[in-house]
Amino acid sequence: MTPLKVSIVAAIAAVILLLVIFELIRSRRLQERYALLWLLTGLVILVLALWRGALGWLADLVGISYPPSALFVLASFFVLLLLLHYSTVISKLSEQNMILAQRLAQLEHRVTEDQPPAEVSSR
Amino acid sequence: MSELVSQTVEPRAQRAVGLRCLAIVPAYNEELSVGGVVREIAAVERDFEIVVIDDGSADGTALAAQAAGATVIKLPFNLGIGGAVQTGYQFARDRGFDLAVQVDGDGQHDPGEIGRLIEPLLDGRADLVVGTRFAEGGGYRGTPARRLGIRFFAAVVSMLMRQRVTDTTSGFRAANKDAIRLFATDYPHDYPEVEATVLLSRSGLKMVEVPVVMRIRESGSSSITTLRAGYYMIKVVLALFIGLFRRYSSPLEEP
Fold first, then answer.
1. How many domains does chain B have?
2. ipTM, two decimals
3. N or C terminus: fewer CB in 10 A for chain B?
């Protein structure tokens, strides 16, 4: 069985994490799209911290004799997942950044060319 | 005598005189249908300007739209329906349009219904009009799961807005100047329709629904596949819930 102290500390940490995520979304510093994985992380840690039987069962299942270790293993799994998620997000951003730079360069060239630009917006 | 007549049975086209109207057509890989949609709008609503927002299509969507006579804004990459539609509202705001109608580029919205859609705006009864598939007079057939999803959000939104709403996922909408200004500055990202409806009412603007008949889409498929449906539900419910704790300012106040 997980020592009670570990459960209490983990539960408090999870609740604080969830509150911080909530406030970040509310103040629009974090988009819902990127918050879902964070929320899942917080919820899973909270559930396992409170429902100590489940953590013991999970530890047994993967052969960890000390249940709190299972909690940390799981937490680091989610951290890895988040990092991987970020890698994909960064890849997409750098791709889009490149396209923006290329489009901007083309537009700048067109604007500064001697001849008038081909299309003039109708006003 | 003639004054009396013009007051009672003023035709819609006459009332709209002097108003600058814009049709916003978001299109993503819809080269087969977008040209027809543009031509149809131009045929029924002669005084409308039409802007097609090409949301990073890989096909000839932009060319087809241009050939049909629309103004085309090509996004450098796919932003998703929310980003595309907001680009249209920004265009409308920056060019001083009085009224903007969203019409999907896939042909599922009948341009012939635009007249009925903008009527509540002209009367000043609403700031946003949503063409709904469920209210009396509309006909909608879809998969049971789809209908259930639409009804679920309708129930949630009706509760949040304290107003009966039957179809929050419809993208056939008409906005007046206030709603244009609101959406140009603040519009949800993915799956935006449900959140936009709530955003509008929390900003103190008024929405009404008008029943419309929707057609079977000419090309493309719904952006909502079975796999994405789960993400859709969770994301929108989360956004609506957190939205309850946000403070909104009226769009009439300059930011």
1. 1
2. 0.74
3. N
Q: Hunting for tokens 């419910």 — which residue is that?
A: B237
Residue B65 in any domain: the answer is yes
Please say whether the beta carbons of A67 and A2 come within 8 A.
Answer: yes
The residue count of chain B comes to: 255
pTM of the model as a whole: 0.83
B interface residues, A as partner, C-beta within 8 Å: 71, 76-77, 95, 189-190, 231, 234-235, 238-239, 242, 245-246
In a domain, B7, yes or no: no
- CA pair distance A67, B141, nearest whole angstrom: 53
Specify the pairing of strand B128-132 against strand B173-176: antiparallel
- Cα(A108)–Cα(B83) distance, integer angstroms: 24
Domain range for residue B212? 16-243
What are the tens digits of pLDDT across the range B175-232? Answer: 999 999 999 999 998 889 999 999 998 899 999 999 988 887 655 556 666 777 788 8
Radius of gyration for chain A, computed over Cα atoms and rounded to the nearest angstrom: 24
Determine, yes or no, domain membership for B6.
Answer: no
**Chain B closest-CA separation from residue A100 CA (Å):** 7
User: With b meaning 16 or more CB within 10 Å and e meaning fewer, what string describes B110-124?
Assistant: bbebbebbbbbbbee
| Mean local confidence (pLDDT), A83-94 | 95
Which member of A25, A33, A100 has the closest CB to residue B189? A33
Q: Give the Cα separation of B81 and B27 in Å (integer).
A: 8
